[in-house]
Each structure stands twice: as C-alpha cells, then as structure tokens.
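Hey, quick one: can you model this chain's 3D structure?
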Amino acid sequence: MFTGIVEEMGTLVERDEDTLTFSAKTVLQDLAVGDSIAVNGCCLTVVNLTATTWSVNVSDETRQRTSIDQLQVQQQVNLERPLRMDDRLGGHIVQGHVDGVAEVIQPAPNFRVRVPTTLMRYIVEKGSITLDGVSLTVVNVFADGFDVALIPHTIDVTTLGSRVPGDIVNIEVDLMAKYAERLMVSWAPAV
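Sure thing. Here's the predicted structure for all 191 residues.
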C-alpha cells in the first residue's frame, strides 16, 4: 500500500530481459530483497540489492498494463516505499496496481491526459487519481480524459514536470470507486 507521495526520483541504469535495475538513495534506506517499491506507480518486488542499486523482475501482466516497457536506460522514474501503519497518509490510498496508461495531451502546470474509455467511469471532479505514482486531484473531467493542476513542488520533485504531449503515463483510479461499482453491480436486480 502506498500514498502517492513520491519520495524521490531514481534512474533506470540497466535493462536485462525481464530485470530492471534502478539507482536511488532515499528508497534504499531499510530496503531488503522481497520488499515492494512503487516505480512510476507500479508495485514491484526487489529481487537484488547493492549499496546504490536495486533490481526488480517484470511480469507479462505488468508489461501489458503499464508503461514499464517504454522506460529507457538513464530515464528518471518516480519512487515510493510502501506505507507503514504509523505513517501519515499524505496522498490517498494507492495500491500500486496500475489500471492502464493515459496519454499526455497538455504538459504542466495544467496537466491533461487522454484516458481509455473503460476507466473514465471511475474518474470524478475533485476525486483522487494516481499518475505515474503521484497522488493528484482531478480538476476537470472531459469525455476522453481529465486534467489536474500541478503545483511547482510536484513539477520539481516528480517526473510529471518533464512530460510532454504524446508521452504515456501509468494511471491508477481510486480504489474506492472500483469497490463501489462492484458492490452496486452485485446488488443490481437481474435483467
């Protein structure tokens, strides 16, 4: 479980088939093999660890749903360690289970993305949304996407400030919306 508050930007330093290796500083503190790290919002498991790097394996499911395969060596990524039970929840509840990808239409500060139609039903004005692991608040909802207002701090400490039109970002919709839909469907009368 994560909060969508990015702790630092790390760098992809090596790709070797299904293994990605990242360099970082902050997220390496207290890190152990088997721990989870959110990389651009994707919950990944640490499989190897050195003093300055850590590696993860990527599954076919992750490749199909996320932008992980598009990462290039030396590209920066947003990183967050899992939430501890005694931590503040500064963002919102984020699982690190990416629902799909969105296309950047307009860059920061009025950041707009185009979203797959299947995810639009979970997006509401002033609702929580996660883009590349960053907890954000939806400002406006459009037929094919939404926008968020990025403050200067978010632009400076996450990769969202460098995103340009055409870039692909990971999107995780609000968990509560998915549960609410599931409950409503199970209670709806059979047709």
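One thing worth noting: Residues 175-187 form the longest helix (13 residues).
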